Amino acid sequence: MPILQLDNLTTNYHTARGWVRAAENVNLELEKGKALGLVGESGCGKTTIALSILKILPAGGRIRGGKILFDGQDLVPLNDKEMRKIRWKGISIVFQGSMNALNPVFKVGGQIVEAIRLHEPDVSKSDAYKRAEALLEMVGVEPSRVNNYPHEFSGGMRQRALIAMALAANPKVLVADEPGTALDVIVQAQVLQLMRSLKEKLGLSMLMISHDLSIVAEVCERIAIMYAGKVVEYGDIDAIFKEPLHPYTQGLLGAFPGITEQRKKLISIPGQPPDLLNPPKGCRFNPRCPYAMDVCKEKDPQLEKVGSGDHYVSCFLY
Amino acid sequence: MTSALSDGPIIEVEGLKKYFPIKRGFFTTVISGESVSVKAVDDISFFIKKGEVLGLVGESGSGKTTTGRLIVRLADPTEGRIRYKGKDISKLSSREMKPLRKEMQIVFQDPFESLDPRMIIKDIVAEPVHIQKVAKTEAEVEERVKQILREVELVPPEEFMYRFPHELSGGQRQRVAIARAFILDPEFIVADEPVSMLDVSIRAEILNLMLSLVQRRGSSFLYITHDLALSRHICDRIAVMYLGKLVELGETDTVIRKPLHPYTQALIAAVPVPDPSSKRIGEVISGEIPSPINPPSGCRFHTRCPYAHTRCAEEDPPLIEVEKDHWVACHLVDIPQNS
């Protein structure tokens, strides 16, 4: 049984102009000890899914349908008090923008201790500090830096400290929202390496969100490509990279040239993502799709299995 | 790609330095008796050939943006010379620079901040024409604006000319910034991370557009970026910067396939590969870029270099040509020249 399963999850934002359909009928499964990559451009709904899973949507955001099954338990009907038992211990999150996610007026160690003691009140302060030091050491930060303020940390160290904090209460699932962005390439590679070793060492299940296919390719076994609030392609990462089926996935892969590849003209996807207040009828990619047929403008394609392997695509071409 | 480069370099940079002083308290300055500065660019030399696309690559804090700004004289160099078509422009006043601005333009990173929110697109794009007084009548200005908007594929131009920047998407805004830079048919363009704020699916489109504009005019192009993978696909030559110094410079293929400087090697190894079957990130160098206020002695990379030896901490390696058109600043490749 998957440790985390999204079943037809629909999350919308209420605005004065109507509902923004940020995520619609999303089905995903995260197996225990595996990593699932969620990839798409800004505004495709990938962060909305992360926030829905932890039920920390901003004002106006509402889960309007579907289930979020964590270890078999549906999180959608839970109230805030019940959710608090799930967060950190069950599912925790590493936020986007690591530079700003730490509180600048408290010491890094104190912030980790706060997280530990909030979720395990019977741990003494000194024990919590010992644990904070061990956590920092695990993510590759000198334990003595526990008494430093965030501004004394470099960008990479802050990202590591945030990962340490997310692991404070031994969660089963770690949601990482753009863990590498805003970091320099070399530091980014260091962080990705850390995520991979943590996954193996702690048997963590990971949902990794990124706009960069190549980052996800470094860590994940499975991948889901999102476009305008919908999953368009989903399955085993090798299968999708070898044979991308959805025209959007093909475009995305073309837009990310590898450094080792032969020099070539970059391929791009003309147009821009749609306004989610008023998404196009039928397949949401049809206005930009080079292969769009009449049916694409009328009917909404469903995610269906293709071939014999672990590969699903939502496109009328197949 | 473009090989009809004969008549000398368009830009020559020689021993260029830019130090930004750090403000400290009066007493600290008096007591220590020295002023402290950030050595953003520290003694770099290179040239850009006519019609060439040169990529300037480095991590944040390497001084690449400062270099770009110095070359178009948006910042004043502390020391060194910048020659444009053989003419020394490093000491020119802004008044003397004005006629040259027609020929050299810059496209900034963030299209959300580089366009005046209170001006309509037509005025934004026409501003260089007005400042340089190259059009005689208002009708001529409008014609030029329309033509350049068509060239950057904002069609029909009438539909965009009377809008404000906030009515456009990020990609469209960057097209406006590009139109503004190209309306005077410049011979030299600096683009500072022109696509890093844009969505991935439109990045390639904007880059291809800039390249075709540059090629159509035979302009030279300095492309500043942190993205080695992208620059591999668009640049003729690549220059790699680390902490204010050039560490490697050469033809794109040579630098990517046969990097000689350990930093270039580390940068290339760290670029994630869009291929799940090669989950490698094997050897990643440790640490992060040190502070440019107090850069390491000798070779600035020696604190992170896996091959560092004692000489690296003491002596600053010069940028030398190890093979034709391939320059490296590293003691490891410092083979005695048979002269």
Q: Could you walk me through the main structural features you see in this protein, from its secondary elements to its overall organization?
A:
The complex is a heterodimer of chains A (about 325) and B (about 350). By secondary structure, chain A is of the alpha/beta class. Chain A has eleven helices and twelve strands. In chain A, helix 4 packs across helix 5, helix 5 packs across helix 6 and helix 6 runs parallel beside helix 7. Chain B has one domain: P-loop containing nucleotide triphosphate hydrolases (Rossmann fold, 3-Layer(aba) Sandwich). Chain B contains twelve helices and twelve strands. An eight-stranded mixed β-sheet of chain B has the order 6-7-8-3-9-10-12-11, with helices on both faces. The N terminus of chain B is likely disordered. Chains A and B meet through helix 7, helix 8, helix 9 and helix 10 of A and helix 8, helix 9, helix 10 and helix 11 of B.
Attribute tags:
heterodimer; A: 318 residues; 12 strands; B: 339 residues; alpha/beta; Rossmann fold; 8-stranded mixed β-sheet; globular
Helix run count of chain A: 11
Q: How much helicity do the residues of chain A have?
A: 25-40%
Low-confidence stretches of chain B: 1-5
What would CATH call the homologous superfamily of chain B? P-loop containing nucleotide triphosphate hydrolases
CATH architecture of chain B: 3-Layer(aba) Sandwich
Order of helices and strands of chain B: EHEEHEEHEHHHHEHEHEEHHHEE
The residue-averaged pLDDT of chain A reads 90
Amino-to-carboxy terminus distance of chain A? 29 Å
